[in-house]
Fold:
Amino acid sequence: MEKQTLSRDGTPIAYERTGRGPVVVLVSGALSTGATLAPLAKELSGRFSAVVYDRRGRGGSGDTPPYAVEREVEDLAALIEAEGGEASLYGASSGGALALRAAADGLPVRRVAVYEVPYAMDDAGAKKRAEYSRALQEALSRGRRGDAVELFLRLTGLGEEVIRGARQSPMWASLEILAPSLAQDDAVLGDGRPPLSRLASVTAPVLALAGDASPAWFGEAARTIAEAVGEGTYRPVERQTHMVEPAVLAPVLAEFLAG
Structure:
């Protein structure tokens, strides 16, 4: 990351800006850094100043305990201030929940787009997330980073054979480095249910997206977001899953963000 700004509590936040035009800050999800969204930033750079950043505790950014979701909102506030004082937000997965939280908390946000925020849409989903949260905290408290990553991968639906293969892959070490940040994403999602009262306070226009090749509950969550905010739109993205292709997503985002 080429640039750095300081959050309110003094934590350094590393970021990069690509392109010229209205600012859009891209917020990554679990087990990811700003580099994860760099390909999307490149796709948007022809029309926008696309900012990617390492959330606190990841990559080139610092971390100041104790963690609180409010600190991550302050990180976004610092980025927006550093890049002109107003921005749109795009959040991927749990990063979408953070983007919506920032808008609800009154940051100077023009528009918010989110892709497949993993809110629990029924009692079974909420119970599964609660069990994951308990097991995650136990694994991290014991320093079992690999176990924490495994818990997350199971939560996403990966099978045991795939997880065993992942453990043997070269990328596993980098996932273990990011494992403590799983607790941050878990905190951002709260009890897992859509925070309807908080969403109702979002005044910026919101575009909630989900791939039509993803499990149906992602679409249900996106529709719930769109209906809960003051000015929301739900849109499926054709032939896409949770691992959405930047070249497919970028035109959809550009159309909305330019409005």
